[in-house]
Design goal:
Radius of gyration: 29 Å
Strand content: under 5%
Number of helices: 9
Number of strands: 0
Largest sheet: none
Distance between the termini: 25 Å
Number of domains: 2
Helix content: over 70%
Structural class: mainly alpha
């Protein structure tokens, strides 16, 4: 059976959606694999966020940045923990994407509120923004979902800091913009490259398994009639005998001899 080949070096559409393979059978093969990988990615994202936010909460307390920072980072840590536990139960791909987006956007919103409340963009906050955007490639999603999530974080920070620009130093705003743009470009480039490599790997695995199935059929069936050949019958006969000895079930074996069939089979 011939299957349309997937070209990993195709246009942007090949990286736009994680399930866009062109061939329906290849999509059906890849969907459960991508779902499992996405579940692991969301779990890893939430775990990394949990560790980072927990560390940020501890550092906020140690360096006396204020109880607001400590409480905010602590609550975000609880959210990351909840998403980490929930990712193991979710089976829908879109729901997993929603969990990852929720974690990143809520964390971004909290950082925006912290900046607005404190009126300053200190090093811890800038580092949190960079880490937040750089965590996007951890989840194996399509470029469409990654761009939407990254764009939401970027627009949220840009709009918030622009509205409160009088409260921030101009240099801090420029640093934040440059930091977000660089992190966003790197993240989206990593997402696109990882997706193309993942699709290429899935296509190769699909065609390899398909070729293995065809080889098994060729090795165990007669080419002319499609009937099981001697190799398969001998192996299946041994299994039937072993099953009969183990269970005591009755078995029957029938042998047909067709006269002058060799003239046709040859």
């Amino acid at each position: 059976m011939n299957t349309p080949a997937f070209n990993p070096a195709g246009n942007v559409a090949s990286a736009w959606s994680c399930l866009d393979f062109g061939a329906p059978e290849l999509r059906a093969y890849a969907a459960p694999v991508i779902t499992r990988e996405t579940r692991r990615g969301v779990a890893l994202l939430s775990l990394v966020a949990l560790l980072f936010l927990g560390l940020a909460a501890a550092m906020s307390a140690v360096f006396a940045l204020g109880t607001l920072y400590t409480y905010t980072y602590s609550l975000l840590s609880v959210l990351a923990l909840h998403i980490w536990l929930s990712s193991a139960k979710v089976k829908q791909l879109r729901a997993l994407y929603l969990l990852a987006t929720l974690l990143l956007v809520v964390c971004g919103s909290a950082l925006v509120l912290l900046a607005q409340r404190s009126g300053q963009l200190h090093a811890m906050l800038l580092l949190s923004v960079a880490v937040l955007i750089m965590l996007v490639p951890v989840v194996p999603w399509g470029l469409r979902e990654a761009a939407a999530t990254t764009g939401a974080i970027y627009l949220m920070f840009t709009a918030s800091t622009y509205l409160g620009r009088l409260r921030f130093a101009a240099l801090d705003l420029w640093v934040l913009q440059c930091l977000m743009l660089v992190a966003a470009v790197i993240s989206l480039a990593l997402v696109a490259r990882a997706l193309r490599l993942r699709k290429h790997d899935l296509a190769l695995r699909f065609h390899l398994e398909q070729a293995q199935r065809e080889l098994i059929i060729l090795a165990n069936r007669d080419h002319l009639t499609g009937a099981w050949n001697r190799r398969h019958i001998e192996r299946d006969f041994d299994r039937a005998v072993a099953r009969q000895h183990a269970t005591g079930e009755e078995s029957w074996f029938a042998l047909f001899d067709i006269d002058r069939f060799k003239t046709i089979n040859d």
